[in-house]
Specification:
Shape: globular
Helix content: 40-55%
Number of strands: 10
Low-confidence stretches: none
Order of helices and strands: EHEHEHEHEHHEHHEHEHHEEH
Mean pLDDT: 91
Largest sheet: 8 strands, parallel, barrel
Structural class: alpha/beta
Oligomer: single chain
Distance between the termini: 39 Å
Radius of gyration: 20 Å
Strand content: 15-25%
């Protein structure tokens, strides 16, 4: 087995790319694309009569492929199917970094998966607590229960909205403006931020609509998402570029942090920088920007 470090609950996840777990030829080199996380899919990408074969392929991929620094998650089948329990066992036995819970609708769903993950860790001699969880919210019930879902487990790394299924449940089609899904996005973001976990937007499936894709990525960043789910390697570069802090944002953050250090020595808590009032929340955000810039590899300062 290729040894992997313990997964990080809070790490850089600008991009999470879905890949069919049944396609060894594709998943063996997935790390070369530079994506932050890959999601090996046992659910929608796999036909009903191919679930066992996909699990077999997944297990051997996890055991034999060195994915380097790329995080490896697995999208399991939903709790309403007969497949999910074996999906969990294979994920844990293979050493996946985490499990994406499909069609999650309640905290009980999360806790049920957590129990089976823990049992599998004990069964296969995996360090207890190693396997992380994330939840895909795909229905009105899931969105309205986002708050309890986000707080359901210490293993939770984040939540993501599944746009296709959510839109179907709402009887709507994709709109350029996102009006049909933006309320759900906002509710999920609020729940994730309260719980202190990450939040990811849905895939953009119109691969030939480059303008629409870029507009949605920019909306995601403006709304406060941590990253975006993807289905094509061509989409990675623009997401990484958009989610990285700009030179201007980095320079402003540095100015705030340095000025705060100076003002703190004098016992000042609120002051002005460039005509703008600055206090602790500004500094915390500035520190977050610098940390993100470092994680993205675009910071060259000395803070």
């Amino acid at each position: 087995m290729i040894p992997r470090p313990r997964p990080e609950r809070f790490r850089l996840r600008r991009t999470m790319m879905f890949m069919n777990a049944q396609r060894p030829g594709l998943i063996k080199d997935a790390y070369i694309y530079g994506v932050d996380s890959i999601i090996l899919d046992l659910e929608d990408a796999v036909a009903e009569n191919q679930k066992d074969a996909a699990r077999f392929s997944l297990y051997h991929a996890l055991k034999s492929i060195d994915y380097g620094e790329t995080e490896v998650l697995v999208r399991m089948n939903g709790l309403e199917t007969p497949h999910w329990q074996e999906d969990v066992r294979v994920c844990v036995a293979g050493g996946a970094d985490g499990v994406r819970i499909a069609k999650c609708e309640s905290a009980d769903d999360v806790r049920q998966i957590e129990e089976h993950v823990l049992a599998a860790e004990r069964e296969f001699g995996v360090e207890e607590g190693r396997t992380l969880l994330m939840a895909a919210l795909e229905s009105p019930k899931g969105i309205l229960n986002a708050r309890e879902i986000c707080q359901a487990s210490e293993r939770m790394l984040g939540v993501a909205i599944s746009g296709g299924d959510f839109r179907k449940s709402m009887h709507v089609r994709p709109e350029r403006s996102g009006i049909e899904i933006n309320t759900a996005r906002s509710l999920m973001l609020l729940a994730a931020r309260e719980a202190g976990i990450q939040c990811f937007d849905t895939v953009f499936t119109a691969l030939d609509d480059e303008e629409g894709f870029r507009a949605e990525v920019e909306l995601d960043r403006a709304m406060g998402f941590d990253g975006k789910s993807l289905i094509n390697p061509r989409q990675i570069a623009y997401v990484h570029k958009t989610f990285a802090p700009t030179e201007k944002e980095i320079a402003t953050a540095e100015l705030y942090v340095r000025s705060f250090e100076e003002q703190s020595k004098q016992g000042v808590g609120v002051y002005t920088v460039g005509g703008k009032m600055v206090d602790i929340p500004f500094i915390e955000d500035a520190q977050r920007v610098i940390a993100l810039a470092k994680a993205c590899g675009v910071y060259h300062g000395d803070l």
